[in-house]
Structure formats: C-alpha cells, structure tokens
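hey can u check if this looks right to u? its 148 residues, i copy pasted from the old doc so theres a chance i mangled smth
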Amino acid sequence: MEIILKQDVTNLGQKDDIIRVKDGYARNFLIPRGLATTATESAKKVLSENIRQRAHKEAKIKDQAQVQAEKMNGLKLKIGAKTSTTGKIFGSVNTIMLAEAIKDKGFEVDRKNIIFDEEHIKEVGTYKAKVKLHKEVSVEIEFEIYAE
C-alpha cells in the first residue's frame, strides 16, 4: 500500500514522503495513529501543491535572513560586566546578554540561535559568536567585554 507520511517516522521516512508499506502496517498502525494517509491521486496532487507553496515560503524566509545577515555583518558590540580587580567577571557572559546587546542595535535574534566560540566567557576581552538566522544562513559577530 502506498501512503503519505504526515510526520517523521523513525526507520521509515520523513514528513511528506510517499512510501510503500505492507497493508496491515498502514491500516492497523500508521493511519489510525495519524502518522500517515493513503496516497490517492488527489492526495498526491494536494501534497505536491503544498510542497511547492512551502518551498516558496522557505525561499522568502531565507532571503530575509540573508538580507539581515548582510546588515549584521561586521557588527561589533560592547557588553559591560561587573569585574574584579584582576579582570575576572563575576559570573559569566551568556547568550541572553548578547541577544539584548544585538536587540539594542536594532536586530531581533533569539538567544537560542547564538553560539559562542568559547564555552564560558569569564574574563574581559574580545570574543566571537555565531548567530544563526536561518538553518542555512549564519553570521559571525565580534563583541568586547569591558569592566563596568
């Protein structure tokens, strides 16, 4: 039986794949649990139209991320932190602080999409971070930590 997967199924396929499985597996497991539908001609046409529209939307989102990456390229930030006399930061600089500094410059970035080059930033200095704007688009930002 030919089916269309509604979501990813381990060891079977990804969402929107048209695959061939045994009739009992489809009728007794996949379809009742809402993991798949039968692949009729009309369902295949609907699927191809949905994939085409999704590809168009994804291309638009990627273009917007590319434009934002070009604007953010070469961005240098300064983040103040409370430090000891030796230059060690009380605590550490985290993605929340960097996301707020980026927001102050006029760019909206989710803190979960920021990746530091170093694991923990606990000293005054210049560092780099990678900001993922899209799964295929990222930009590297340089930031400086200074003592307040």
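Residues 2-67 form a domain with the Ribosomal Protein L9; domain 1 fold (CATH 3.40.5.10).
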